[in-house]
């Protein structure tokens, strides 16, 4: 709480006040509360007593109790930025977020030192966020980031709030700036890659490829720092999204070598092979994934397995997989294709029989031509 101090009223030479200040400076906040409580009871007209009682209660983590003395301090001295800032903090920490926003918004924020401006915007942003107003919360965090241009963490936090407000493009820009300022933070890079994945899924054409290439570059940087399962899996995902299927297959094989008991990597490997039309190769990792997945994940695996089996013309197995996945449409399509294939096979067989009969007829004609006195005409009864 001492870090919030702007300008405290000069010390009052009255019993209880000096003892309270000594206890406050020694971080004995409960003792300070007792001393200042006694002081305001004896001198109810003294602004400084109420201000320090409120600060002591805040520092003692009793923010709800700090509201009343800080309101009284504000009442006694009029519009005092320090008292309004402290009161706003007490209201915010007490969960009275609308009151905190109203109190802090009455400050002439631009007139405060930059450090105190940041504090106001951070508190107001947090209160907006608690009320679900992520747009206003993001705007305040943007002001914090601008006030602290060398603070990478402030820029990243701004990006997170933009992301929460579904402002994906500005969020990505904020993440990228934070990462450019501090490239050693793996958590930030992971967040950035995941945001780019979301952006890539909703984009098409050359722009989509560019987004996934950027995501792959950041993901490769993560793997270069630590070739962990999670980092390899993330790289494999963005390679899949960017249609870099050969690289994805190689990356996902490495991921599986790190951890074999997670269905995700097995499924993604099967999808990489499927995208390469290597359906026979896809079947084994999909079956591995099936043995590890459960619930909705199991249905996801079964659905893709149904597709792979369909491509191999393993119709009965494909139908079973689709039905277990709850994909009635897929199962119906395979049955239809199976029927069409059967009809085509029957037609092919019929045509083959006709061709064989024609061959035999031609052979018989040839043999008749070789018999003296024979005719090519069939015998008459």
Give the arrangement of secondary structure elements.
Elements lengths: L16 H9 L3 H14 L4 H13 L3 H15 L3 H13 L3 H9 L8 H17 L3 H14 L4 H13 L3 H14 L4 H16 L3 H21 L3 H13 L3 H14 L4 H13 L3 H14 L2 H17 L3 H11 L2 H42 L12
Helix pairs in contact: 1-2, 2-3, 3-4, 3-5, 4-5, 5-6, 5-7, 6-7, 7-8, 8-9, 9-10, 10-11, 11-12, 11-13, 12-13, 13-14, 13-15, 14-15, 15-16, 15-17, 16-17, 17-18, 18-19
For the structure shown, list the relevant keywords:
381 residues, rod-shaped, disordered N terminus, mainly alpha, 0% strand
How would you portray this structure in words?
With 381 residues, this protein is mainly alpha-helical. 77% of the residues lie in helices and 0% in strands. The chain is rod-shaped, with a radius of gyration of 37 Å.
Q: What is the radius of gyration computed over CA atoms, rounded to a whole number of angstroms?
A: 37 Å
Strand content: under 5%
Q: Can you count the helices?
A: 19
Q: SS-based structural class? A: mainly alpha
> Uncertain spans, ≥5 residues at pLDDT below 50?
1-13
Determine the fraction of residues in helical runs and give it as a percent range: over 70%
Distance between the termini: 122 Å
Averaging pLDDT over every residue, what do you get? 90
- What is the N-to-C succession of helices and strands? HHHHHHHHHHHHHHHHHHH
Number of strands: 0
Overall geometry:
rod-shaped
Largest sheet: none
In a nutshell, what does this entry contain?
The protein has helices at about 15-25, 30-40, 45-60, 65-75, 80-95, 95-105, 115-130, 135-145, 150-165, 170-180, 185-200, 205-225, 230-240, 245-260, 265-275, 280-290, 295-310, 315-325, 330-370. It is an all-alpha fold and about 375 residues long.
């Amino acid at each position: 709480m001492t870090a919030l101090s702007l300008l405290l009223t000069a010390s009052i030479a009255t019993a209880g006040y000096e003892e309270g200040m000594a206890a406050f400076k020694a971080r004995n906040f409960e003792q300070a509360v007792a001393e200042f409580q006694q002081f305001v009871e004896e001198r109810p007209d003294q602004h400084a007593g109420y201000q320090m009682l409120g600060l002591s209660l805040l520092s003692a983590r009793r923010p709800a109790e700090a509201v009343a003395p800080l309101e009284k301090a504000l009442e006694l001295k009029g519009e005092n930025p320090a008292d309004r800032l402290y009161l706003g903090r007490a209201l915010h920490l007490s969960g009275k977020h609308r009151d905190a926003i109203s109190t802090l918004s009455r400050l002439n924020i631009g007139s405060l030192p930059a450090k105190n401006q940041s504090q106001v915007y951070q508190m107001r942003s947090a209160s907006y966020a608690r009320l679900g107003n992520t747009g206003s919360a993001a705007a305040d965090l943007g002001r914090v980031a601008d006030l602290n241009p060398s603070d990478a963490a402030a820029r990243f936090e701004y990006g997170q709030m933009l992301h929460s407000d579904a402002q994906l493009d500005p969020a990505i820009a904020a993440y990228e700036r934070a990462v450019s300022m501090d490239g050693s933070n793996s958590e930030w890079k992971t967040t950035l890659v995941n945001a780019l994945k979301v952006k890539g899924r909703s984009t098409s054409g050359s722009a989509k490829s560019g987004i996934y290439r950027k995501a792959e570059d950041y993901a490769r940087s993560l793997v270069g720092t630590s070739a962990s399962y999670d980092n390899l899996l993330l790289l494999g995902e963005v390679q899949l999204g960017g249609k870099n299927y050969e690289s994805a297959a190689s990356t996902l094989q490495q991921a599986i070598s790190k951890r074999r008991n997670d269905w995700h990597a097995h499924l993604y490997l099967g999808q990489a092979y499927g995208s390469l039309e290597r359906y026979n190769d896809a079947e084994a990792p999909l079956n591995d994934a099936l043995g590890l997945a459960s619930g909705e994940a199991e249905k996801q695996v079964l659905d893709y397995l149904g597709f792979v089996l369909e491509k191999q013309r393993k119709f009965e197995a494909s139908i079973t997989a689709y039905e277990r996945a709850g994909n009635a449409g897929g199962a119906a399509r395979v049955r239809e294709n199976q029927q069409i294939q059967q009809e085509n096979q029957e037609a092919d067989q019929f045509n083959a029989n006709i061709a064989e009969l024609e061959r035999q007829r031609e052979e018989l004609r040839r043999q008749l031509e070789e018999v003296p006195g024979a005719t090519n005409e069939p015998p008459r009864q």
